Amino acid sequence: MSAASASSAPLRIVRLANFVTPASGGLRTALRELGTGYRAAGHEPILIVPGEREDDRQTGQGRVIALPGPLLPGTGGYRVLADRRRVARLLDGLAPDRLEVSDRTTLRWTGEWARRARVPAAMVSHETADGVLRSWGLPERAARRAADGLNSRTAKAYSTVVCTTEWAEREFARIGARNVVRAPLGVDLERCHPERHSPLLRGRHARPDQLLLLLASRLSVEKRPGTALDAVAALRRRGVRAVLVVAGEGPLRGRLEQRARAQRLPVSFLGHVTGRDGLAALQASADVCLAPGPVETFGLAALEAMACGTPVVASASSALPEILGAAGRAAADGGEAFADAVQALLDRPEALRREAARARAERYGWGAAVEAFLAAHDAPVRDRVVHAPEVAA
Prior knowledge:
The protein is 40% helix and 18% strand. By secondary structure, it is an alpha/beta fold. It folds into 2 domains: 3-186 and 365-376, 3-Layer(aba) Sandwich (Rossmann fold), CATH 3.40.50; 194-361, Glycogen Phosphorylase B (Rossmann fold, 3-Layer(aba) Sandwich), CATH 3.40.50. Helix 2 packs across helix 16 (366-376), helix 5 (129-135) runs antiparallel to helix 6 (140-157) and helix 12 packs across helix 15.
């Protein structure tokens, strides 16, 4: 245990992340809520992310520093911290007590910086490496072999590897890594609540006799948004009056819109929904939310939907079945299987399925998540973190 931890002194926790979009997303939400919780626990969080231009400001989640980073073509807005020397100089000047990194590919070099600086460092596994590689088209055996090599280097480079689910932890257990801890993420149970249900909002997107499905996701290849369109098409072939609302942006949006027009599918593309309250109202007003991404290691959007009382159908290949439990349904990666799972959910009375979704989500408050992450950092919690309050990013 470090001297700082032993004396219960506040820690400067510097966090690094790539692939954070300007609009809200799962990683952005997690970074914001964890930073807010670290502050509430008496620590000093500092977040470093790539941006269009240099920026440095104090926010509700602590100090946020943006360094200019190049856009990655074809990713719909992702940027990376490409200037290692500049990042290293910044880290030298900040002199962190702890380092937390949310990118085990382009930022893995920071583990060596931390070792030289004698700073305990944690890598947060937000995805499975072999899953991402498979989503890019790599054959399963080759993806697993490459992932094992990447994960071995990651486990050696950092003091701790933090996994948010048992599912995500498996690929590190496979290589015999012994420095892995589990810390779940959470959901804002106050903002995401069944009371957000709006008959007026629902009426904008579906008639009373229609089934309103929602996909709240980044529209990129690893999220498999096309499966949601496949599911709508399958349901309608079965005589189910299903409509789909898509909330999110990404490089596949144009292709998906073209497909929906060509197949005359009742799909509305809203783009990025501004305001977290607006998204919560949409999640609460849907009948079922779809989470087709096969490499999701936690699925914050799905958990938010459940907190709003809306059940979820998720990819059986992802970690989400572990999160959903009996309150949702897992489906094989295809439209027909997703349609089957939607209909199985609808066989339960609406009140029961919505109560079950909310009850399951209540296991995942942000307070418990913050405490788990601080424990991974060997950082003291001065007062129990009940809830990370909603703040500006």
